[in-house]
Design goal:
about 450 residues; alpha/beta; Aspartate Aminotransferase, domain 2; seven-stranded mixed beta sheet; 14 helices; globular; binds pyridoxal-5'-phosphate
Length: about 450
């Protein structure tokens, strides 16, 4: 992870940016950040890279290390995944790349079958509608490359997964512009996605002379875990049709719905009801939903006939490694195991872990978004920050880092409301607890400081 981030040299006084980054964002690693923690945080520093493996907490080998509750991984099924992999005939895998086309075709067939079944598509998904990729981010970048021109705009309701605003557009040079969603906690209203907000976003960008090419929606949402139903999606699709925009829907967490009351419905289920199939594109990653933490694979589904051949031309740079393809073909073939064992256990464990973590955070006076899916507690610290503003949020974030726990602050997700932090609950219990103890310590220190100020 950390290697994806540009590092800076020198102290906070003398930033040197290595690399050519949009918006001149500086990415210190957390160790470098911590080294300079006593220096005032410059507002230009917006991103902190997650801790590397060497920097991360381990109860035996690195008890002083940073607990990473920021990176979106699900460790609740590690034993089952390992047992399943052990059972598979991994010796069948080879490094023979003489017929990569055949290996890719086999995996594409399995993925098409898998998606037809698990996404409940009304008709069988055809091979010429999907393209395998090495990750979801690459899929968005490729769509940007082939659907737009540099500096065209894709709108993305925010808060959203932070990389959507940066690494998704590294090659396409597209701008992903956040459309802030309103919320009013007192009125019980959370960041509500609606068509009028998106339409205002289109008009604002057009007035600025920008060409809006599309809208990017994540369903279930990251970070909030909210599920958007078909009626809303259809309204968004009609909006896109009216403005001739592309709609990219990322369903990265569609098999990670842990709230038994709520059902997720993939956009694929809409079949012929999709108003503009040529401009509707779906992305799904195999990594998150199947808990394959170190395996990088994704799929793009589109009915756009002119897009698919272009995507094929990107094979050299975006392919999944051949042994990984062979592994995945075997792994996703056993639908019976995935439905009756893997997903059942996963959802039970996620439900338990979510409420366990939520109760702990609420015991500190933190409000937690009523999530239904995904790996995150979306937490609001406003009652602790008091007053809830950017300055206090940055101070709290610095204190969390100082106490060795990494979470994702609201500004990385382009959330306009201060006080929000994204905290992963799908860590193993003992890792979550180690992180929670540090969050608790930070909140207690914060409360003590506030009490001391009021006493003065
Ligand atoms: C909504 C969303 N899209 C994309 C990704 C990244 O997926 P990948 O690592 O396959 O690029 C994530 C990862 O957390 C995500 O939450």
């Amino acid at each position: 992870m950390a290697r994806n981030f540009v590092r800076y040299k020198g102290g906070f006084e003398g930033f040197k940016i290595i690399g050519n980054f949009q918006n001149k964002i500086i990415f210190p690693t957390w160790t470098e950040f911590k080294r300079n923690i006593s220096t005032t945080l410059k507002t230009s520093v917006r991103m902190v890279a997650p801790p590397s493996d060497e920097e991360s907490y381990d109860p035996i080998y690195n008890p002083q290390g940073m607990v990473n509750l920021g990176t979106g991984t699900n460790y609740l099924m590690q034993h089952e995944v390992k047992a399943r992999v052990d059972k598979m005939r991994i010796q069948q895998l080879s490094l023979d790349t003489t017929d990569p086309g055949q290996i890719e075709k086999e995996l594409s067939e399995e993925v098409a079958n898998f998606m037809t079944k698990f996404f409940k598509a009304p008709e069988n998904i055809q091979l010429n509608e999907i393209k395998l990729l090495n990750n979801v981010t690459a899929g968005i970048d490729l769509l940007g490359t082939f659907l737009g021109k540099p500096h065209d705009v894709f709108l993305c309701p925010a808060p959203a997964y932070s990389r959507l605003f940066r690494s998704c557009t590294q090659y396409s040079a597209l701008e992903v512009v956040p459309v802030p969603l309103k919320h009013n906690l007192e009125a019980g209203q959370y960041f509500s996605l609606n068509v009028s907000t998106l339409e205002r976003g289109i008009e604002e960008q057009t007035a600025l002379g920008k060409r809006v090419r599309g809208i990017l929606v994540t369903n279930p949402n990251n970070p909030s875990g909210e599920i958007y139903g078909h009626p809303l999606l259809l309204e968004i699709m009609e909006l896109c049709q009216r403005y001739e925009l592309h709609l990219i829907i990322s369903e990265v967490y569609c098999l990670s719905v842990f709230d038994a009351e709520n059902q997720f419905h993939s956009v694929l289920q809409l079949g012929s009801q999709i108003p503009d199939p040529d401009r509707t594109h779906l992305l799904w990653g195999l990594t998150k939903d199947l808990c394959l933490t170190d395996c990088h694979a994704a799929v793009l589904h589109s009915k756009n006939k002119s897009l698919m051949p272009k995507l094929l031309s990107s094979n050299l740079f975006r392919n999944i490694l051949i042994p990984e393809q062979q592994f995945l073909t075997l792994y996703i073939r056993d639908h019976e195991w995935i439905i009756n064992s893997f997903l059942k256990k996963k959802h039970q464990r996620m439900r338990r872990a979510f409420y366990r973590a939520k109760n702990k955070m609420e015991s500190l006076g933190v409000e937690v978004f009523p999530s239904q899916a995904g790996f995150f507690l979306f937490c609001n610290f406003r009652k602790i920050l008091n007053p809830n503003n950017e300055k206090n949020s940055i101070e709290l974030f610095k204190s969390l880092l100082k106490n060795q726990v990494y979470v994702v602050p609201y500004w990385e997700m382009k959330c306009i409301e201060p006080g929000w932090f994204r905290i992963v609950f799908t860590a193993e219990d003992h890792i979550f607890d180690a992180g929670f103890d540090r969050i608790k310590k930070t909140v207690e220190e914060w409360n003590d400081r506030q009490r001391a100020v009021y006493r003065m």
